[in-house]
Structures are given as structure tokens and as C-alpha cells.
């Protein structure tokens, strides 16, 4: 048991400390009905990493992180400018899907001639949680997430109104473009940071699955957040246990456990409605 704890303690710390902000942002994304924006921004961040690798930077260098953030901010600007209050013939979700596909294809092309291209592409999908073996790898992202969480708390009236009550935001005269860009820019930094740790699949799963589970069972924001955090925490611990016991990749194990949690929650919600 002590050996398992020694190997898993920093991946466990990352899975307990970092997903909280992802879960909260996932509630915004669900309410905005732009489900794949997180996947698209994660892939855009990965494209920045691919460019850095092509320029012979290590994926963990600050230059790679800076390029990923730069690419993500461009993606955030695109999604801000394409979000409108009116219904259009081409929905924003279509543009988000196109952004994801083009960014994914661009990454494949950029790493096509890299001697370790396939391995690097795999790492962008499933991450490197098992390689977290010192406090700085977890506490630095946690400090960044705490700062972003503080910004969200200070401006919670604007962010919550834009996501949960857009009509009230319009009546009160909030600047949609300005606050939307700030939202997506902070969101992009959160996603980019976690992509470097957990990969694209785990980012999407932490953002969407706990929020969907919560929406099956509750309506109030406080209840939604509590249920989302509980699903995320229990699934993370169970996923890490399965990973250690069955020698599975950590990221893929947690994603599958989150999927099972969603299935179980859906069944519970169905019985609640029927009773």
C-alpha cells in the first residue's frame, strides 16, 4: 500500500486539487450550449505544442506553454466573435467542430515527420499524469487555478449572468464581447494548463461529464457544483485505483470511470422521475 501511495500520491493530488475549476467551468459550458468548445480549445492548445515541438522545444519548456497559450487566446477570440444572441443559419457549434477538426489535422501534419510523432500525439490525448512526481508539478498549476478562480469569484455577477441569465445580462447592459473574451481567455488558460498534465480526453471529461451528471439531478447552482465535485472526486479516486490495480493508463482509466458514473447517474435520475 505504501508503494502504491508513493507512486500515486502526486497524480492523486492533481486529480483532487485541479478538476474543481474545470467542473465549475463545465457548468457554464453546459448552460451556454457550446459543449465542444472545451475540446476545440484543448486541441488548439495542442496545436501550439505541436508547433513548439517542430521548433525543437521540449513539450514541458515554457516556450511550448507560451505557444499553447497564444494559440488558445486566438481560439478564444474566434469563439467570442462568433457568439451572437440571434439564431443564425450556421450555428456556433458547427464552427467549434470545424476548429477542432482543423486543429487536430494540423497537429498530425506538423508531427508527421517527427521521429516520435505518434508517441507525442498519444501523449496529447491521454496526458502524463503518472509522470507527476514532485510538488511543483501540481502546486504551480493549482496556484494558477486559484488565481483564475478568484477572478471568477470577483466578477461572478457578470460571468454567471452571461452564462445562466443572458437576457438579464442584456437588460443590465453588460458588454457581451468584452466579458465573453475574458471568460474564454481564462477558460483557455485553464484548459491549456491541464492539457499539458492530463491530455485532451481528460480535460473534456472533467469539464463535461460531472456537469451533465449534476444537471440530471439538480437545478440550483450550489447543488450543481456540489454534485459535480463529488462525481469528479469519487471518479478520480476510483480511476486511479483501477489504473494501479490493472496497470491501465491513468487518464484513460479516469475517463472510463467518469463514463460509468454518468451511466449510473442517468439510471438514478430516471428512477427519480418515475417515482
Provide a concise account of the structure shown.
This protein is mainly alpha-helical and 275 residues long. The mean pLDDT is 86. The protein is globular.
Protein architecture, described:
Helices cover 82% and strands 0% of the residues. The protein contains 12 helices and no strands. The protein has helices at 2-17, 19-32, 37-54, 62-82, 92-110, 117-126, 135-154, 156-164, 166-171, 176-217, 221-246, 250-274. The longest helix has 42 residues, at 176-217. It is globular. 41% of the residues are buried.
The helicity comes to over 70%
Contiguous low-pLDDT stretches (5 residues minimum) are: none
Mean pLDDT, as a whole number?
86
* Major sheet characteristics: none
Secondary structure category: mainly alpha
List the helices and strands in order.
Answer: HHHHHHHHHHHH
Roughly how many Å apart are the termini?
A: 43 Å
Number of helices: 12
Q: What integer value in Å does the Rg equal?
A: 19 Å
Query: Which geometry do the CA atoms define?
Result: globular
Report the count of strand segments.
Answer: 0
Beta-sheet strand percentage?
under 5%
What labels would you give this structure?
12 helices; single chain; mainly alpha; 275 residues
Topology overview:
Elements: H1 2-17, H2 19-32, H3 37-54, H4 62-82, H5 92-110, H6 117-126, H7 135-154, H8 156-164, H9 166-171, H10 176-217, H11 221-246, H12 250-274
Helix pairs in contact: 1-7, 1-11, 2-8, 2-10, 2-11, 3-4, 3-5, 3-10, 4-10, 6-10, 7-10, 10-11, 10-12, 11-12
